[in-house]
From TrEMBL:
Domain of life of the source: Bacteria
Name used for this protein in its record: AAA family ATPase
Domain Endonuclease GajA/Old nuclease/RecF-like AAA stretches: 11-52
Cross-referenced Pfam families: AAA_15, AAA_21
Ranges of residues in domain ATPase AAA-type core: 243-350
Originating organism: Nonomuraea insulae
Length: 387
């Protein structure tokens, strides 16, 4: 697929997903959502978690995990909307460049139905609902919109053999097929969304000894539960990155001198060599903020990042002195991946550039206003505050 920088998301469009009644959100390398509780910041992150779940489990399981269509749809206004829509635009075709690709998912309830559209500068695909009894898809050529429907060809014609279910998503199904016209573009967007990381450090899990050896390219777990294993792997396989990560940790943790490791059979546990102490401190005895910081640094220094990483309350548990370095490392990592970050911290927001800041508010009708103010207005506010 090329480098991550070649395959970015340009924008997100959402209709009727929880509080996101009608949201159009431009996406850059670093996107930080700020606003009061209940403004909809978490729901933006949940959209991407939902898309990743569709890739891994399919549409109906992803809906069921959230209580079904009725729980997920926007509840404001006089009546429930009839559909949920999620659209993303970006560049994920095989040949990176200026082209803009699109994926559009529309889900209707009562009776349940779905429509998916995959568009690229190279081809146009409109996918009708796939059922076990009728495996078919319709193609539309950009140059010939009146083109007749063509059957979807594949090596296996038995739907049950390839796992197609009623109301299956193309994201989860078509990449497994053997038809190049359909599998290629859907496979590309499925890999992009499937690699999505919603990162939140589970502090108790991160402090426990790691048992399973990390596999090449596996990276830090989404909850940092393999923190010790990842760090020892990084120290052995990526010494330059390891030295930068350790230097960052020493910079923002004044008592820290070095990160060490204790091996006990198949397990490894991180140890902190701290100034003035005769013995190193195991991660299990370190502070909540220290573990969260180490987990975040591991994520930001991961040599195999996902296409997009979402982090909620990135500043939670951290001293303000750590925020300056954290923002710098997010920008550095933004050259290799994209970030959507939620925060309540004025100290973190003060360190952001106007183009990185997305203000979120809640309207009187219960819907989220994202962005609540334009980038140009944010720039004016920043200039005024600096003046």
């Amino acid at each position: 697929m090329g480098t991550v920088a070649d395959h970015r998301l340009f924008s997100l469009e959402v209709e009727n997903f929880r509080s996101l009644r009608q949201v159009t959100l431009p996406l850059g390398p670093v996107n930080v959502l700020v606003g009061p509780n209940g403004a909809g910041k978490t729901n933006v992150l949940e959209v991407f978690r939902f898309l990743a779940d569709i890739v891994h489990t399919d549409l109906v399981p992803a809906l069921d995990r959230r209580g079904g269509f009725e729980r997920l749809v926007f509840h404001g206004g006089a009546a429930d909307p009839e559909h949920i829509r999620i659209g993303i635009k970006g560049s994920w075709s095989s040949e990176p460049g200026d082209q803009q690709d699109e994926y559009d998912l529309r889900i209707a309830g009562a009776p349940f139905a779905r429509e998916e559209i995959f568009r690229s500068s190279m081809e146009r695909h409109l996918l009708q609902t796939i059922t076990v009894s009728d495996i078919a898809a319709t193609t539309r050529a950009e140059a010939d919109p009146t083109r007749s429907p063509e059957p979807l060809s594949m090596e296996k014609t038995n739907a049950e053999e390839i796992g197609i279910q009623a109301a299956s998503s193309g994201l989860s199904t078509l990449p497994r097929l053997h038809d190049e016209r359909f599998a290629r573009i859907t496979g590309q967007v499925a890999r992009l969304l499937g690699s999505l990381r919603v990162f939140e450090v589970d502090v108790p899990a991160a402090t426990r000894p790691s048992r399973a050896p990390i596999r090449l390219g596996e990276g830090i777990a989404n909850d940092a539960s393999n923190l010790s294993t990842f760090l020892v792997w990084l120290s052995a396989n990526e010494p330059d990155i390891w030295q930068r990560l350790q230097a960052d940790a020493v910079e923002v943790l004044p008592q820290l001198e070095a990160i060490e490791f204790e091996h006990a059979g198949p397990t490894v546990l991180g140890m902190l060599r701290e100034r003035g102490l005769r013995e190193p401190t195991p991660l299990s005895d370190a502070s909540y903020g220290t573990i969260r910081l180490l987990g975040l640094l591991a994520m930001l220094h991961d040599p195999n990042p996902p296409a997009l990483a979402c982090v909620e309350e990135i500043d939670h548990g951290l001293h303000p002195q750590a925020l300056e370095l954290l923002v710098e490392r997010v920008r550095d990592a933004g050259e290799r991946t994209q970030f959507i970050i939620a925060t309540h911290s004025p100290a973190l927001a003060d360190r952001l550039k106007p183009e990185e800041l997305i203000v979120c508010e809640r309207g009187d009708d219960g819907s989220s206003l994202i962005p609540a103010i334009s980038r140009s207005k944010v720039e004016k506010i920043v200039r005024a505050s600096e003046g």
